[in-house]
Design a protein that fits this description.
The protein is mostly helical. It has one domain. The chain contains six helices and no strands.
Amino acid sequence: MRDYKLYLEDILQAIDKIEKYTKGLNADRLKKEDLIVDGVVRNLEIIGEAAKNIPQDIKKKHPDIEWKKIAGLRDILAHEYFGIDLQILWDIIKNKLPELKTKVTPLMK
């Protein structure tokens, strides 16, 4: 089995990519950038899949991270791609991901 820190690294790398893709954008501009939306969605799926693979004991030690919601988002993105609300996506990019990054980064130590 893969070490859980590799999954944490996957999460952080995906967040970094999303930050890079969306740097300098606003919500209206994001709506016009299909390639960026595709890249963001793919990396959110990676984050969700990685979160699913974090061992239960680690998840229990860090209940402040919404592991279940993160994994659930992956399922929504993967199965309801055409129904994605870009305003919600923007909120995730600007508010949820920085918070997740702040919480996951210390777990790498």
